[in-house]
C-alpha cells in the first residue's frame, strides 16, 4: 500500500534518509512514522480508536465528540481506568457506544435508593445548615458546613459514621435560560477509597448535591457487596 505524504513529511523522511546514509547506519530506529491524518483523507477525530493502551485524552475526546460530554481534566483518568479495564477483559477495541455505556453505568447513574427528593439550605452567622432527603426509608440527613457540599458531607459522615474527603469538584452550566441544565463532577474519598460521579440536573445546587450522593452511594453499594461476599 502506498501513502501520499505532505511536503513537510517528505522533507522529514528525506532528512532521515540522508542522516542514516551519511552515518552509515544499517537500520532505522523509528518509534512511529509521522503522518498527518489529512494525508490519507481523514480527520484526527475520525481515526481515534480505543483499546487498553489508549490514553486519557482519546477517551475523553470520544465522549465530547459523540455525546457533547465535556469533562474536567481530573475526570479523564477516572473514566480512562474504567474503559481500559473493560478493554483488557475483552482484549478488543471499545466502541464509542460502549464508552458511553461505561460512563453512564459507573459515573452518571443515580441508584434508585439515592435520588435526592428534597433539601433545605439556610445560612446562620456564616454557617450553612442543611437537611437532605433521599428516596430510601432513611431519615432526613442533617449537617452543616461552609457551603451546601460541606453540609451534605457532614450530614453523611454523622449518619453513616465514615470519614469523607472532597478530592475534586467541578460544576458548569450546560445551557442557558429558564430551564438551563448544569453538570457537576465530584470525587470523594470515603474511608480511604476514591469514588467519582457526574450528574446533570436543572439547577446547579441539585446537580452538585446529587453528584455527591451518587459518589457516596457507590461506596455504600461496594460495602454491601463486600458484606454479602463475606
Task: Tell me what you see in this structure.
The strands form two sheets. Strands 1-2-3 form a three-stranded antiparallel beta sheet. Strands 4-5-6 form a three-stranded antiparallel beta sheet, sandwiched between helices. The chain has helices at 7-22, 56-67, 73-90, 96-107, 148-160, 204-229, and strands spanning 116-124, 127-134, 141-145, 164-173, 182-190, 193-201. The protein contains six helices and six strands. It folds into two domains: 48-107, no CATH class; 116-229, Alpha-isopropylmalate synthase LeuA, regulatory domain (Double Stranded RNA Binding Domain). By secondary structure, it is α+β, with helices and mostly antiparallel strands.
**Strand sequence of the main sheet, in spatial order?**
1-2-3
Classify the secondary structure makeup into a structural class.
alpha+beta
Q: How would the global form be characterised?
A: elongated
Q: Strand share of the residues?
A: 15-25%
Low-confidence stretches: 1-7, 44-48
Oligomer: single chain
Number of strands: 6
Radius of gyration computed on alpha carbons: 24 Å
The termini sit apart by: 58 Å
Q: Helical proportion?
A: 40-55%
Give helix and strand order, one letter per element, not per position: HHHHEEEHEEEH
Major sheet summary line: 3 strands, antiparallel
- Give me the number of helical elements: 6
* CATH domain topology of the largest domain: Double Stranded RNA Binding Domain
State the CATH superfamily name of the largest domain.
Alpha-isopropylmalate synthase LeuA, regulatory domain
Number of domains: 2
Would you tell me the overall average pLDDT? 80
- CATH class of the largest domain reads Alpha Beta
Q: What is the CATH architecture assignment of the largest domain? A: 2-Layer Sandwich
Amino acid at each position: 500500500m502506498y501513502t501520499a505524504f505532505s511536503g513537510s513529511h517528505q522533507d522529514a523522511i528525506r532528512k532521515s534518509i540522508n542522516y542514516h546514509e551519511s552515518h552509515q547506519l544499517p537500520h532505522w530506529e523509528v518509534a512511529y512514522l509521522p503522518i498527518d491524518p489529512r494525508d490519507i483523507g481523514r480527520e484526527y477525530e475520525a481515526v481515534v480508536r480505543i483499546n487498553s493502551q489508549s490514553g486519557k485524552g482519546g477517551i475523553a475526546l470520544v465522549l465530547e465528540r459523540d455525546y457533547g460530554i465535556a469533562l474536567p481534566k481530573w475526570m479523564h483518568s477516572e473514566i480512562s481506568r474504567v474503559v481500559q479495564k473493560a478493554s483488557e477483559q475483552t482484549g478488543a477495541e471499545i466502541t464509542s457506544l460502549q464508552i458511553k455505556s461505561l460512563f453512564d453505568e459507573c459515573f452518571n447513574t443515580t441508584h434508585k435508593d439515592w435520588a435526592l427528593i428534597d433539601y433545605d439550605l439556610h445560612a446562620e452567622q456564616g454557617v450553612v445548615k442543611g437537611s437532605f432527603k433521599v428516596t430510601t426509608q432513611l431519615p432526613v440527613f442533617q449537617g452543616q458546613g461552609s457551603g451546601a457540599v460541606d453540609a451534605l458531607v457532614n450530614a453523611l459522615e454523622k449518619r453513616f459514621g465514615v470519614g469523607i474527603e472532597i478530592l475534586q469538584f467541578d460544576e458548569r452550566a450546560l445551557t442557558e435560560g429558564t430551564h438551563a441544565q448544569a453538570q457537576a463532577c465530584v470525587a470523594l474519598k470515603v474511608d480511604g477509597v476514591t469514588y467519582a460521579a457526574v450528574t446533570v440536573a436543572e439547577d446547579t445546587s441539585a446537580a452538585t448535591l446529587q453528584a455527591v450522593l451518587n459518589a457516596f452511594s457507590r461506596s455504600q453499594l461496594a460495602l454491601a457487596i463486600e458484606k454479602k461476599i463475606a
